[in-house]
Amino acid sequence: MAELIAEHVLAPVGLRNTRSDQTAVIPQPALHAYTSERNGTFEASTDWSPSWTLAEGAIMTTDIYDAERSAIAIGAGALMSEVDFTRLTQPLPDGLGTLPDGPYYAFGVVVDDGWVAQAPSFFGYYGVMAYHQPTGIALAYAATSGPPRPTGRTRRCSNA
Fold this sequence. Notes:
By secondary structure, the protein is α+β, with helices and mostly antiparallel strands. It has a single domain (about 1-145), classed as DD-peptidase/beta-lactamase superfamily (Beta-lactamase), CATH 3.40.710.10. The protein contains three helices and ten strands; from the N terminus they run αββββααββββββ.
């Protein structure tokens, strides 16, 4: 799987800092994430493996620059025929996720007023990558959640 991804996706799109691995090790420097999804208590999730959700060799890590390149490739249909790209960006056949005159969920992407976007989240990691077809604008954003702020007394500074 990793070889197929490298040959048919990473190389053609020019993703130099994206890796397809067997493990969930994130190359440094890495954003560190925390979540309470597992048991209600905030805990570090940086090293949690998504391998149960993916085929062997398909665990991917990237940097923000390659995420932007991915947004352009997906939003422009760089790796597929025009027919397949049209299928990718059409509303789902049952209308699921479709709003009147607004954004709709297609096959793995959200489409809204010329934007083709994805907004993945996984165990405390959040992101958005989008491409605006009419203008050629692309963006990529990544964030993580952190532990909640302590409750109770707060310290106040004074000049007394």
